[in-house]
Structure formats: structure tokens, C-alpha cells
Design goal:
The protein is α/β, with parallel strands linked by helices. Helix content is 37%, strand content 19%.
Length: 206
């Protein structure tokens, strides 16, 4: 609660209004991007996504013409999906918020431009597609992705290197330890994204 902030920071209403203004301006996202851009462990990167349950207070109906809140309906109810790219130390390099029903493919396509100059990318079977592999190769990145069972042409990958993918799973687990991230209470996508950026900066980049 904003009322719990130390009095030295000023009135809680002023703090809230400043947070909203900075969120709309993308200040917190820019701070995260600047710090993440200094990573030196970008030889091997990872990509994955996780669901974040939307609380009923965040899922109220939008008025016509309002901006998307990045909340969608899945089998588990109303959800938001967080897509992320991590470096070889398990620290987030890029974050993307989408509706819960958005496929991992679409998230990966959006994050392609945010990939660093890596040598290898680790991902699970959900990212096994010919177009994604070709897109990585065109960037000079070798995909380390196990193939799906129904794949006509078997996919080759390094099983030992693939074991490092647990780092991105642990990164999601640490971020979701924050109650405000684990369950989405924010109605606006920009404030929720700012909260995720703040959590990522504090836990991984400071």
C-alpha cells in the first residue's frame, strides 16, 4: 500500500501519481533495459514464458477504444503471459507482456529483435518450429531446442548444454516470489510491466 511508504518520501498520493507518470513514460522499463544491456554473459541465452494469474480487480471490462490491458482468457481463467530472454547467468535481458492466450511463437517473434549477439539460444519444445530455427540461424545464433514428437525431420541439440535452461525457470520463480507479480492486481499493463521491471532490477541487476 502506498500509505505504508516512509513519510520522508512525501505524501502517498504524490508517490502514486509519480509512479503512474513514470510508468506511462516507460522510465522503469528504460532503467531495466539500460542495466540489462551491460550483461557480459550473452554467449548463451534462453527464452521462455510463464503465466501470471489476473486477480478480479485487474480484469474489469474495458471501455470501448481503451488500450489493451494484456489480459486474456485461458483454460485456467484470466491470465497474463510474461515472455523473457535471459543471459547465461539466469538474469533477464528482455521482458514482454502479452495476453495469456498468446502463443510462445508470437512472443518469440516479437523478442527476436531484442536478442543480443549470442552464439546459442536454449528453449523448450514449445519453441520448436522451422521458421524460428531459421530466424535464429539468420542472426548467427545456433538453436538448442529439442524437437517435438511429431516432427518429421529429427532436430539435433546438445543435451548437456540444454540442462542450463533451468536458469530461466529459476528466474521466473524468483520474480514470482513477489506477490504483486505472482498475482496481477494492476489494471493497466504499463503499471504491471513497471512493477516487473522494478522487481527484475532489484533482484538481478543491483
Amino acid at each position: 500500500m502506498w500509505r505504508d511508504a516512509p513519510a520522508a518520501y512525501g505524501p502517498h498520493k504524490t508517490l502514486y501519481n509519480r509512479f503512474i507518470r513514470w510508468s506511462e513514460a516507460g522510465v522503469f522499463n528504460q532503467i531495466f533495459a539500460m542495466l540489462a544491456g551491460k550483461s557480459q554473459a550473452t554467449g548463451v541465452v534462453m527464452i521462455d514464458a510463464t503465466y501470471l494469474k489476473a486477480h478480479r480487480t485487474a480484469a474489469s471490462l474495458l471501455k470501448k477504444g481503451a488500450l489493451s490491458r494484456r489480459i486474456g482468457r485461458t483454460k485456467g481463467g484470466l491470465n497474463t503471459k510474461l515472455h523473457a530472454v535471459c543471459d547465461g547467468d539466469g538474469r533477464p535481458l528482455a521482458l514482454l507482456l502479452s495476453e495469456g492466450q498468446v502463443s510462445d511463437y508470437k512472443g518469440a517473434a516479437t523478442l527476436l529483435s531484442a536478442l543480443p549477439d549470442a552464439h546459442v539460444l536454449l528453449a523448450d519444445k514449445g519453441y520448436d518450429s522451422n521458421w524460428f530455427r531459421q530466424a535464429l540461424l539468420s542472426l548467427g545464433i545456433t538453436p538448442c531446442i529439442p524437437g517435438r514428437k511429431g516432427r518429421k525431420q529429427p532436430a539435433t541439440y546438445d543435451p548437456e548444454l540444454y540442462k542450463q535452461r533451468n536458469l530461466i525457470e529459476r528466474m521466473f520463480g524468483r520474480i514470482k516470489d513477489w506477490r504483486r507479480i505472482h498475482t496481477r492486481y494492476d489494471r493497466c499493463a504499463h503499471t504491471f510491466t513497471s512493477a516487473i521491471s522494478i522487481a527484475a532490477v532489484i533482484m538481478f541487476w543491483l
